[in-house]
Amino acid sequence: MAGPPRRRFSLSKLPHSLAIALWVVGSSWAVMIAAYLLDADTGLVVPLVLFGTLTGAAEWMMRGRDK
Hints:
The structure is a single chain. The protein has helices at residues 16-38, 42-63. By secondary structure, it is mostly helical. It has one domain. The longest helix is centred in the middle third of the chain and has 23 residues, at 16-38.
């Protein structure tokens, strides 16, 4: 039996593009703060931030802009 229909709106009442942007910025800051506190090498931090930015952009393109 199939589950309930999926919602097509955000529970946060923010536009999808703004919610995705906030997640990308927040995750980038979290990675950078953790790297700073752990004294990590930038060779690890830069790819993680780029990966987060690219996945955020991909999600934004898949969802499309709010109308």
